[in-house]
Design brief:
It is a single chain. By secondary structure, this protein is an all-alpha fold. It has two domains: about 30 residues; about 30 residues, no CATH class. It contains three helices and no strands. The longest helix has 22 residues.
Amino acid sequence: MATTSAATAPEHLALAERARDRAVRRLLAEQHPDGWWKGELATNVTMEAEDLLMRQFLGIRRDAETTSTARWIRSQQRTDGSWAT
């Protein structure tokens, strides 16, 4: 069953093409002259917790790293007990 829409198929295509073109322009504006992009990196406790889990699973966990990372993870806990995501 076909659905009705205020925009026709050609109008949807034109909208999609404009969105694509805006995205391409934005990406090209952010691109370094050498061809690479640099984004801002942000992390939360999930990455560190997953790293600890992976190291344990692979058998390469070291106590000093575990202690340091666990201390950092605990320092990120909010006063209400939640964690940033």
